[in-house]
Design a protein that fits this description.
Blueprint lengths: L5 E3 L9 E3 L11 H13 L1
Antiparallel strand pairs: 1-2
Length: about 45
């Protein structure tokens, strides 16, 4: 898989891990700022 099929986790206990995902038309990774906000919300839960 190419580097563009990887998503880096930027927060929490899994920080710096890479998650791979398959190619799919219309699927694109989320930007760093949105991911950071999502993890902040999850951490508060």
């Amino acid at each position: 898989m190419s580097r563009r099929n990887q998503l880096r986790i930027i927060g929490g206990t899994h920080r710096s891990r890479l998650v791979t995902f398959p190619d799919h038309d219309g699927l694109r990774p989320t930007g760093d700022r949105v991911r950071e906000m999502l993890f902040n919300w999850l951490q508060m839960s």
